[in-house]
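ok trying again, last paste got cut off:
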Amino acid sequence: QVSDGLKRLFDYQHDDGGWGWWKPDRNQPFITAYAIDGLLDAKANGAKFDEWNITRGGRALLELWNKYPRAVPDLKAYEAYVMVRAGTEEFGVTAALNDLWSARSRMSPTGQAFLLMTLDHREDARGATLAQELVASASTQGEVTSWPVTSDPLLEDFADTTAEGTALVLRALAERGSTDASLERAARWLMVNRSAGGYWVSTKQTALALRGLLAFMKARGEKPAPVAADVFVNGTRATTVRFDAASLLAPNPQLVEVPAAAGANSVRIVRQGEGAVRSEEHTSELQSRGLISYAV
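nice, full thing came through this time. structure:
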């Protein structure tokens, strides 16, 4: 699949190094940055290909940066993040970061997260200030936290992209080693705000959400390991679910259905072992049949 994806990306790359929505399209800033970002991730994970494709892409992105100086600051932050990662020559990083820093109040959490990752990549001390600002701006309701983004600043669309903004902030904070409690709540928010199929509303949102969750898991030291989960309902152990190391990559969780008492019920899940355990309550017609359903 990686080889097929790389082949398709290179097939769509224009002669000048950029990308558009389609082969004959003109270069588009977000698509060009997104393609380079993917190539950089592929390279970091061991994929082998001609890195000249990244260099050419970076040059095309720099041309777009200069061509559209008044683009929305979130998009400019993403372009800068990608060019810094790619080591694009002739990109004026210092001036760009100073401009973006001044514009951060006009960014959504999406742009602020990209700016934070860029500052941290360059070990810029302003990253600590921005991290504090992001934590302070979180929206917390009970046991979940998100960073609302009511539009799509990367594509200049009207679609709600709170999942993207939350995932990017989660990733940016996790990668810098933050232990703030909002990270756990943000991961929980992402998990409970998926579509019915277990993914998010678009491939872009799904990709960004997974990257954020993976960064969070890596920061916590989560790794494949055997683990058991004791499920207690109203103080009594109802069942025990066991997982091996390979379960981390299983496509579907295990569904636990246990009898429910009349009225309110309490559910507690106790982990045994080194592996991580996450659960999600399933509200469905099962409740009317006197059952509690949890995906573990």
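cool. The chain is about 45% helix and 15% strand. The longest strand covers residues 236-243.
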